[in-house]
Design brief:
Helix content: 55-70%
Order of helices and strands: HHHHHHHHHHHHH
Strand content: under 5%
Number of strands: 0
Mean pLDDT: 77
Distance between the termini: 80 Å
């Protein structure tokens, strides 16, 4: 039997002369293994069972669990709602509406009516103040109607005191001319004070006034009960200070500020979803307003949760849990 040391040296010398790596020849002097090869079951991976039916059944259960998790996640997201817009309510629709359905006319109908109308009659208006409950320039509907009626009475032609020499035909003609002029003036003033013909700044100002009148505590304190006092404040011997009487309308309460921010957020969201998708300044302003409203909602939820003020604000503005819970991201 040849010496192993001599055989290993000869192999090393051969590799050095041929400039070959020695790791390919280093294990040649070792003997071959006499153990039998592994069985087929041992060569299979440990995760695969021999019973194919149980293996496939477990995979189906896992796939069903994953699909159920995805479905539950989608249901939770849908239950939270839209963090930007929330749920559309009639009050929100009235804030967003630029033209009322009764006053909206298409361009074709407007062109046809303008062609067929006589020169003395005014063309149809795209929005009538008589059909609107909220007007521009701080007008109210009773003030608007009373002012127009007062102007009509002041501009009526005077009848002649001498009825024997009066001309009834001439007086009737003057009355018809006065009525036609009053109709033209009514149409012109209706277009001027209509919010449908106002710009975005004037419409936002009118919406702010409506929100103050709707959520201001100078009005809501008469029919909405505040949150019940806690047990700690009830059992304390120190008397609570009396609230300071309000001077003017309430503009600083949390629900009023949340309503104003909601109206502004919807305006910026409409701009961002349109052609100005790449407007980075608009996106930043929208994110700032969303986070400011989220802070106020968290404070309001902590202080007034379960009260009539909280319920009235959430139901009127259509706010969901996504507006004050979790993280709000503007994509």
């Amino acid at each position: 039997m040849a010496n192993r040391t001599t055989f290993q040296r000869s192999i090393r010398a051969l590799c050095e002369n041929a400039k070959l790596p020695t790791h390919r020849w280093g294990n040649l002097h070792r003997g071959f293994s006499t153990s039998s090869c592994k069985s087929k079951s041992q060569q299979q991976s440990h995760g695969v069972s021999e019973d194919l039916y149980a293996y496939n059944h477990s995979r189906q259960r896992r796939a069903a669990n994953v699909a159920r998790k995805v479905e539950l996640r989608e249901q939770r997201i849908a239950a939270l709602g839209d963090p930007i817009r929330g749920v559309t309510t009639p009050f929100i629709k009235s804030l967003d509406s630029q033209q009322h359905s009764e006053a909206t006319t298409t361009d074709e109908a407007l062109a046809n009516s303008t062609i067929t109308s006589s020169p003395k009659e005014p063309p149809p208006s795209p929005a009538y103040a008589a059909d609107e409950n909220h007007l521009n320039y701080y007008f109210t509907k009773p003030e608007f109607e009373g002012s127009l009626e007062y102007s009509r009475v002041l501009s009526e032609p005077l009848l002649s005191t001498d009825r024997e020499r009066a001309d009834p035909a001439q007086e009737a003609e003057e009355a018809r001319a006065h009525e036609a002029g009053h109709n033209i003036a009514f149409e012109a003033v209706s277009r001027i004070v209509s919010l449908a013909n106002a710009n975005n700044k004037e419409r936002t100002r009118a919406n702010v006034q409506r929100i103050i009148a709707t959520f201001g505590r100078h009005n809501t304190d008469t029919f909405l009960r505040p949150k019940a006092p806690s047990l700690q404040s009830t059992n304390s011997t120190i008397a609570e200070p009396k609230p300071t009487p309000r001077a003017g309308p309430d503009t600083g309460s949390s629900e009023v500020q949340i309503g104003i921010l909601t109206a502004k957020i919807r305006i910026l969201a409409d701009r961002y979803e349109g052609a100005n998708r790449n407007d980075k300044v608009n996106k930043r302003n929208l994110r700032l307003l969303l986070h400011r409203r989220q802070k106020l909602l968290k404070y309001m939820h902590k202080k007034e949760r379960g009260s009539q003020r909280w319920t009235n604000m959430v139901e009127t503005l259509g706010l969901t849990e996504a507006t004050w819970k979790d993280q709000i991201a503007v994509q």
